Every structure is written in structure tokens, then in C-alpha cells.
């Protein structure tokens, strides 16, 4: 669990002074947090973007000082097939995770929005998948997916769907599917909670009207639920996209980016450039690109918030 | 059967299947090494044994040290987060200060930043000031992401404290700090618990900062120790599952005890309003 984003309170109206202006020392309540984030987040980020324009190897890291090389690192990276491969794999992994998480989360939400005994307990239990430490989840999935003795293959063999061993994490395609599935497993309950709230907000009047017009269950879902759920769906998809795009731990723990680089997404690529090859400058190029994607998406995100609020 | 009954049965089945990985972890962790290779695998460990816990957890000093490190880092992160984030959330909710909207946007935007983007420059910068391979460095790194999240979680609780009450406290001669400590904080305890638990759990499972900033064995959190040992475990899945279970159990216990706060925090933080 990395982040819970608060989509409602963002543009809350600032409290304007009514009778007297706030005390100057009031500023001190906020100052430590802003200073902390400035030093530990904003400064390292700027530093890293600057590194992308310098020649930084192990020597420069130890001794300090680095030569300015302009866009040479970018030119180097943009000319490499490995870089584009990593970006492509990031997109495959991210989009796959968004689709699977949303589908799973919506299915769960449609079930758990209904009333029945023990509903809240079960909803809470599902959240366990979301709060379980990644290292635990990733290792359990590795074991479930083990080719010879894993539970999944035992089930598939029992059903007669496969014959012999299938090494999920040992082949490029299945490895990607596996990391996507493991990620979606942990994200879907989070999506469910948001979507349940969204479903509860759909006016029951709409369903009554649809029923009077003779709409069946599927038609109600298609023409009432989905359109009414749209704003929440957009939020959920954007959040999951951002979560998935920056995922490092699940993939690293399950495949280390393998087999043969088949799951080496951009965060793993950047980490490998820095900590295995000691190319801090090209790693910075990769992280800078990683920064741009959430940046662009956040703009979309805030815009969708605005629209929701004015709607 | 009524429709409600059918729903209940379906929901129980779905929940059970969904949490099967968690059960399978526990199941495997109580098995003998030989039983791990049974085909088809046994659905319950017969006879259950603690041998995997004995050999992989209690007899392995690396895991014990990793757990201790994780505990220190998670506790430190939680405390520092509380000290910094609670007053900030109060200020953003209830004080007449400048830059409220930019600060909120900053804290929200920070949560979208990949941990890798911070871990790489931190490794270089922390190296310069001697923070690599220190608890302080790991705690600071964890706080960089937990503080903005905590502020986002905490602020709504302060928003629900009526401004008039705080105003009255001030008219009665309370300083802002007095109004914060005596009036706002006591009624916002559920929020404090929520953010403390979320911060602790976040740091408990944290992996990237540990991997990048604890380069020596001494201070590595257990998540990194497990990742390092993963290959060494080879096919000793019962032992790997025992270690995983030990890491998961505090999370599960906290979750069961404080489930109300956690789920409320996660859902409120994300949807209300």
C-alpha cells in the first residue's frame, strides 16, 4: 500500500480571514512538513533531473562534480532498443494491470454493494490483499505459480487444462501475465472500495425508471450503472495507472525483470542502470521519463476533479 | 433460497477464493519439507509442524535482525510522521495561513512519484552526508512518502472540527497551539490512529528504499533480507512461506484489531465528500 489519494478535498476553498488575519506563527504548523518534503522529495527530484544532463558514473558519485553533457544521455537512451523495450513493457504491464484491476474491482463491487449478512466483514477481509506487504504477496505468488509443485498448476492439471509442468515465470509471455495478475490481485480490493462508494451514489430512481421501460439486468448495467459510474471509474483507472506505472517491488521480487528482460519495466531498468551498471546519468534519464508520465496524468486527474465538482 | 442467501453463499465463496493465497502461505509454512513436493498438494498440513519456522526464522540470525531493523524503521517512520504531519494537517484544515492550495497540491503530487525516482538520487545525496546505511537515512526516506500521505488522511478529521469551537477557545485566551492540543487533537484521535497505522504498515512492507539505501547487511529491513535469500531458499518453499508469514502476521494482527480505522482511513481518504 503506497498511497491513498484524496480526490475530494484537493481544491477545498482556502479559509480567508474573516475578522482578523491568522497569526504569523500559525505558519509554523505547516512549515516543517513543507520543508521536509522540499528537502527529501523536491530537491532529490531536481538533482536527479540535473544528473540526466551530466556525465555521472561511480567516480563522480563518490567524488562529486560532473561534466555537463547537454542532451547526450537522452540521445544515448533514445537510441537504445533496451530503453524503448523497457518503456513498452511498462505500458503493457500498466495497461494490463489497469484493465484487470478495474474488471476485478468492478465485479467485486457489484457483488459487495448488495445487502447480505456479513457483507462488511468480507469487504474488510478482502482489503487484506491490499495491505499485505508486497514482499509477502510476491513470494506467495511465486510459490502458487511454481511450475512443478505450485497450486495453480495442480488445479489446472486436475481440470485437465494443462499436461505436465508450465513454468509461468520462466517464459516471457506467461511471466508478464503473472506479474500483472499478482499486482491486480492486490489492487482490486482497493478499486472495489472506491467503486462500491460510487455504486451507492447511483440514484435508485434511475433503475426504477429503467425497469419501467422494460430494461433487463444487463441493459440496466450497460445504460444506467456504467454511465453513472463514469466519474468514479475515471478516478479509479487513473489511480491504478499511476500505482502500476511506478511499481518496482512486485516485479523485482517475482522475476527480477526476467526471463531475459521480458518483465524489465522502466523502474527496474532505471534501478539496474544505477545499481548494477553504475550509470547514474542514464538511470536519471529513465527516471525523468518516469516522472513525466504521472505528471501528465495528474493534470488529467485534477481536470477530471474540477469537472466533477462543477457538474 | 432467498436472493439474499444466494448472494451470501456467492460472497463467501468469492472471499475464500480471493484469500486463498494467504491460506496457502500458512498451509505451506506448517508443512514438512517433503510434503511440499506432494502431487497433488495436501490442502491441510498433516501433521502440522513448526520445523520451517524453527529453521528459517528462529535459527537464522539474518531474518531476526531484518525483523528488528524493520521494526525500528517502521516505528521511527511512524513517530516522525506523526510529529510532522499532524500539525500540518491541522494548519491546512483550520488555520488562516497562506499557500493552502499549493501545499495540498504538493502533498498530493508527491504521492504519485515512483519510489525509484527518489531512491536513486537519495543514494547519492545521502552518501554525501553519511546517511546511507543508517536508521536515520531509512526513516527519512520512508517519511518522504508517508508524511504527504498522512497529511492527506488526517486533514478531513480536522475539517470536521467546527471552526467556531476553535475560535471560541482562542477568544477564551488559548494560543493556536493550545487550541490545537486541547481542542482539535482530542476529538481527532481516530484520525491520528488511522494515519499512524497506515504509516507503520507502509514502512513495514517498504522495499525500494531498503534495497537502495541499506547496502550493507547490518541495517537491511526484512523485506530486503528475504529478497536476498530468495534464491538461497531454492525449493524450500515451506521455509520461504514461514518467513513470509512472520512478516505478514503483525500486519494481519494490526489489521484485525484496528480494521475499523484502516478501512475507514482508506475509504474516507479516497472517496468522501
The value of Rg of chain A in angstroms is 24 Å
The helix/strand series of chain B, from N terminus to C terminus, equals HHHHHHHHHHHHHH
Quaternary structure annotation: heterodimer
Query: Approximately what portion of the residues of chain A adopt beta-strand conformation?
Result: under 5%
**Taking all residues together, what is the mean pLDDT of chain A?**
85
SS-derived structural category of chain B: mainly alpha
Helical segment tally of chain B? 14
Which CATH architecture of the largest domain in chain B?
Orthogonal Bundle
Number of strands of chain A: 2
Domain ABC transmembrane type-1 (chain A): 87-301
Family (chain A): Belongs to the binding-protein-dependent transport system permease family.
Region (Disordered) (chain A): 1-21
Pfam family, one (chain A): BPD_transp_1
Descriptive overview:
The complex is a heterodimer of chains A (311) and B (273). Chain A is an all-alpha fold. Chain A has helices at residues 27-51, 58-63, 72-78, 81-112, 119-131, 134-144, 151-158, 172-200, 204-212, 217-245, 249-255, 266-275, 280-310; strands at 54-55, 67-68. In chain A, strands 1-2 form a two-stranded antiparallel sheet. In chain B, helix 7 runs antiparallel to helix 10 (189-204). Chain B folds into two domains: 1-48, no CATH class; 59-269, MetI-like (MetI-like fold, Orthogonal Bundle), CATH 1.10.3720.10. The chains are: A mainly alpha (311), B mainly alpha (273). Chains A and B meet through helix 1, helix 4, helix 5, helix 6 and helix 7 of A and helix 1, helix 2, helix 4, helix 5 and helix 6 of B.
Amino acid at each position: 500500500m503506497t498511497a491513498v489519494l484524496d480526490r475530494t478535498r484537493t481544491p477545498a476553498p482556502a479559509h480567508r480571514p474573516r475578522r482578523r488575519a491568522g497569526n504569523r506563527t500559525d505558519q509554523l504548523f505547516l512549515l516543517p512538513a513543507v520543508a521536509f518534503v522540499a528537502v527529501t522529495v523536491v530537491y532529490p527530484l531536481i538533482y536527479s533531473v540535473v544528473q540526466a544532463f551530466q556525465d555521472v558514473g561511480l567516480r563522480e558519485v563518490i567524488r562529486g562534480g560532473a561534466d555537463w553533457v547537454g542532451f547526450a544521455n537522452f540521445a544515448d537512451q533514445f537510441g537504445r532498443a533496451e530503453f524503448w523495450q523497457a518503456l513498452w513493457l511498462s505500458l503493457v504491464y500498466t495497461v494490463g494491470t489497469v484493465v484487470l484491476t478495474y474488471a476485478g474491482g468492478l465485479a467485486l463491487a457489484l457483488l459487495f454493494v448488495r445487502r447480505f449478512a456479513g457483507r462488511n466483514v468480507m469487504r474488510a477481509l478482502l482489503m487484506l490483499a491490499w495491505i499485505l506487504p508486497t514482499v509477502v504477496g510476491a513470494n506467495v505468488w511465486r510459490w502458487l505459480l511454481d511450475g512443478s509443485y505450485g497450486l495453480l498448476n495442480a488445479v489446472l492439471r486436475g481440470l485437465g487444462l494443462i499436461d505436465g509442468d508450465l513454468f509461468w515465470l520462466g517464459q516471457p509471455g506467461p511471466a508478464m501475465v503473472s506479474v500483472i495478475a499478482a499486482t491486480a490481485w492486490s489492487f482490486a480490493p482497493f478499486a472495489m472500495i472506491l467503486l462500491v462508494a460510487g455504486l451507492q451514489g447511483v440514484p435508485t430512481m434511475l433503475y426504477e425508471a429503467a425497469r419501467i421501460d422494460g430494461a433487463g439486468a444487463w441493459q440496466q448495467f450497460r445504460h444506467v450503472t456504467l454511465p453513472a459510474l463514469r466519474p468514479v471509474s475515471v478516478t479509479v483507472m487513473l489511480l491504478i495507472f499511476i500505482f502500476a506505472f511506478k511499481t518496482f517491488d512486485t516485479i523485482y521480487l517475482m522475476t527480477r525483470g526476467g526471463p531475459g528482460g521480458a518483465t524489465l519495466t522502466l523502474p527496474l531498468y532505471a534501478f539496474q542502470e544505477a545499481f548494477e551498471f553504475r550509470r547514474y546519468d542514464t538511470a536519471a534519464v529513465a527516471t525523468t521519463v518516469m516522472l513525466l508520465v504521472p505528471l501528465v496524468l495528474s493534470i488529467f486527474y485534477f481536470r477530471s476533479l474540477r469537472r466533477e465538482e462543477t457538474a | 433460497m432467498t436472493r439474499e442467501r444466494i448472494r451470501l453463499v456467492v460472497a463467501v465463496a468469492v472471499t475464500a477464493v480471493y484469500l486463498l493465497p494467504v491460506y496457502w502461505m500458512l498451509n505451506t509454512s506448517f508443512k514438512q519439507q517433503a510434503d511440499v513436493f506432494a502431487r497433488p498438494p495436501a490442502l491441510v498440513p498433516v501433521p502440522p509442524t513448526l520445523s520451517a519456522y524453527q529453521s528459517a526464522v528462529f535459527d537464522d540470525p539474518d531474518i531476526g535482525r531484518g525483523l528488528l531493523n524493520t521494526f525500528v524503521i517502521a516505528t521511527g517512520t511512524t513517530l516522525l510522521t506523526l510529529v510532522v504531519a499532524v500539525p500540518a494537517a491541522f494548519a491546512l484544515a483550520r488555520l488562516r495561513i497562506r499557500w493552502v492550495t499549493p501545499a495540498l497540491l504538493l502533498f498530493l503530487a508527491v504521492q504519485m512519484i515512483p519510489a525509484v525516482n527518489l531512491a536513486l538520487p537519495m543514494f547519492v545525496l545521502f552518501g554525501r552526508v553519511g546517511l546511507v546505511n543508517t536508521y536515520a537515512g531509512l526513516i527519512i526516506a520512508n517519511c518522504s512518502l508517508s508524511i504527504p500521505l498522512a497529511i492527506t488522511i488526517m486533514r478531513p478529521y480536522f475539517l470536521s472540527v467546527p471552526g467556531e469551537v476553535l475560535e471560541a477557545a482562542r477568544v477564551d485566551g488559548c494560543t493556536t497551539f493550545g487550541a490545537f492540543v486541547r481542542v482539535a487533537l482530542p476529538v481527532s484521535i481516530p484520525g491520528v490512529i488511522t494515519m499512524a497505522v497506515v504509516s507503520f504498515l507502509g514502512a513495514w512492507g517498504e522495499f525500494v528504499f531498503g534495497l537502495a539505501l541499506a547496502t550493507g547487511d547490518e541495517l537491511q529491513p526484512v523485506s530486503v533480507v528475504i529478497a536476498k535469500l530468495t534464491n538461497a531458499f531454492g525449493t524450500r518453499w515451506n521455509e520461504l512461506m514461514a518467513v513470509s508469514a512472520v512478516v505478514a502476521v503483525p500486519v494481519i494482527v494490526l489489521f484485525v484489531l484496528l480494521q475499523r480505522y484502516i478501512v475507514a482511513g482508506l475509504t474516507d481518504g479516497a472517496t468522501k465528500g
